[in-house]
Structures are given as structure tokens and as C-alpha cells.
Amino acid sequence: MLISFKTRFAGVAAALAMTAAHSQQLDAQQLMLLQQLLQQQRAPGQPAAQPTSLAAQQQRLTESDLSTRLSAWPAVAGPFAMERFRDGFSVNGQRVLDPEGRIFQYALDGTTGDITYAIESGPQQYLIKLMRQGVGQPIVIGSAFKQGGQWTVESVTGVRANGSRLTLSGRGFIVARDNALFRYEAGRGLSSSALPETHTLAAVQNGDISATGWVLLEKRMDTKAQEGGAMANTSLGQLFGAVKALGAAVGVNKSDSDYALFELASNKLVPIGISLGEKQAQILSQCRRQNAIVNICDQMDSVESIWSQGGTPNRSHYFWRVSWFRTPVGPVAVVMQDGIRKIEAIDLAGDRQVVVFERALGIGDWTTKQHPDGRVEVKAKLGFETASKEDVASLFADVMSAR
User: Fold this and answer.
1) Strands 342-347 and 376-382, bridge-based pairing
2) H or E segment at 334?
3) Domain definitions of the chain by residue range
4) What are phi and psi of 40, to 5 degrees?
5) Contact 283, 303 (CB under 8 A)
6) Mutual angle of helices 28-40 and 5-21, in 10-degree steps
7) To 5 degrees, how large is the angle CA 181–CA 142–CA 75?
8) pTM, entire model
9) Would you say 202 and 243 are in contact if contact means Cβ atoms under 8 Å apart?
10) Residue 181 has pLDDT above 70, yes or no
11) CA–CA separation, 118 vs 303, rounded Å?
């Protein structure tokens, strides 16, 4: 005897309801698989339902419940040094991976050792987890869903936020839209900040947001167009912008300050000399081999990417050129601005700025990392040699003593 679609659908729905009664025995991934099973039973032609909220899938928690659970984690000594990989990361040399999905975004609180990361749990669906370095297993603190370029994010406590930007901080997440920013911290809840009317949150962040309270902002496109005047959107205006960017790269002129570091607590803004156009990577296609060394390509597309076509870092992208840390002397940023001739350190609290490395012919490559004792080290390739400054913050004291 054939079973009707209505009977099958009711059976699956009943099974899902029984599962919800025992949700504390299942983790978020299992519940999401059940949700997908229910969607597969829908009638032909019906649109797919959006994922059920994470708070509805499992027993409701309060911020107080979550805070109590997190406060039971033992304190660990810091700060901590993070190294990035395409899937996962390492902290103080210890690699972190997640068996449930590829880690695509993560953030570290260098003071407490708290790490928030997001994994891909399905098409355009993500789980956000929180862990403490070397302490137990990570816990799920939220879920995220992306559709049409917009993020919908919900914590396990039922806090919801929507926006076009999602980034993680050491103990939660940040969602932004236009010039509004919403910051969720596990165990404390949601807070909001108004950004300058001229800027929005940069899509990717390469700094310690939790420990410093600073974020990187990007100038809005409409603001940029107004600054460019009547020629901004014309071919002549684009040519002028390209020539200006080339001049900045070789040090003839300064770059437009289209990025800025912003302190959430005080609304302090520190402009950074990097232009919007410098985040683009060139992707070649329709290529054919001329010989063993040279390929001839008929098409080149310019796309925003932190990686080049060959898989190496796109060093002109702001992600690699601006990083910031909490140090024993306060928050310090390390930046390469106004081309590739010099690397500078900025004391964000004291407004001091010093040159870390400078080379008239350009700096080929450079990296920054923070040591467990809080020192920020910068390495740079200067021609055929690699130079290193093991404690960038000490340069501020050297400048003061020289005066």
C-alpha cells in the first residue's frame, strides 16, 4: 500500500518533535541534520525552509547560565601567538582543527586565551564555537546563515542580529550593517555602537578585537564617490585613480586613507593610508602555454581577495597590511601604508608613530606575530636579506629617549 506524502511528512514532523524533547542529549550538528531531513520531505516545487533557530533546536540558555559555564573554565597564562592556515589555525604551535567542518573564520583573545571560530555546517550555514586554549572541548555559542549577501546570526541564548558583515571576536561575534555595529559576547549579551557615517566595518579583521577594543573600518563607496567629485565614476576618473595608486605604490605620493582603526569605547579614529583599490587581486583566465616558462592569457579579472591566484597571500590587501595587538605598553598597530617602502608601528593609545623598517626600493615580504610574553615581532625581506625587530613596542621608548 502506498503511503501518501502528507502521511510521510507528518511522520517526520512527529519524529522531529520527539527529538526536540530530548534535545539536551544531541549536539547542534545532529539537530541540523534532522532539520535537513524534514526539508527533503517537502512537496515538489515548495521552497526550502530556512534553518530553524539554534535556540529553538536546543534547550534555551540564559546569559547567566552561559556565563556560569564559562567561568568554570580555569584561567590560562597568556598572551598567546596565533598562526593562520587555510583550514584551522595554531595557538602557541598547537594546531586546532574541527572534525565537524572546515574552519573558515576565527579570532583569539590574546589575554585570556579564549578563541571563537566558525565552521561550515552546510550550504551557507555555519556554527560558531568558543574554546579556551588547552582547556576542555569547544562549545557551540551560536549559528549563522547567509543569504543574498546578508547574515542572520543567533546565539544559543536567543540573541539575534542581521547585517552584511560578520566577523568574530575572542569571545563572541560582531555583525555590522551600514554604519551600525552589534557586538555579542558570550555570557554578557549584545551591545551596539554607531560607526562614523563615512565608514563601515571592514570585511576581514586581522587584529585582537577583544583584548584591544579596536576594529578596522573601510570607507563607504558613496563617501568615496563624493570625494572623487564629478569624475569619480567616469573612465577618466578611474584612470586617474589607477595612476595615483601606482604612484603611491612606488612612494611618489601618499595613498588615499580609505581605512581606519576605530576604538569602540571612545569613538577614536586613526586613519590608515591604504586605498580601496589595493585590496584587488588579478585573476588570469583563458590561458595557453607559449613555452615552458610563459603562458599567454586572454582575460584578466580583478576581484577582492586576500589570496593571489597562486594561493599565496595578496600582500596589497589591507588584511595583511594592518594588524593590531594588546601589548604591555597598550594597543599597538603594525601597518604598511602609503606604498611598500616602509613598515610603521602606531601606539594607538598615545598617538605615537615610529618606522620599523624602510627601504627605498620596496619591502618584498613581511610578517608579524606576538610572542607569549606579549612582545610583537616583525620580520621583513629587505632585498636579499631578512631583518627582524623582536619587540616593536620598545621602539617607542627609543624615540622618547632620543629626544
Assistant:
1) unpaired
2) strand 330-335
3) 1-49, 51-194, 221-402
4) -70, -20
5) yes
6) 170
7) 90
8) 0.74
9) no
10) yes
11) 24
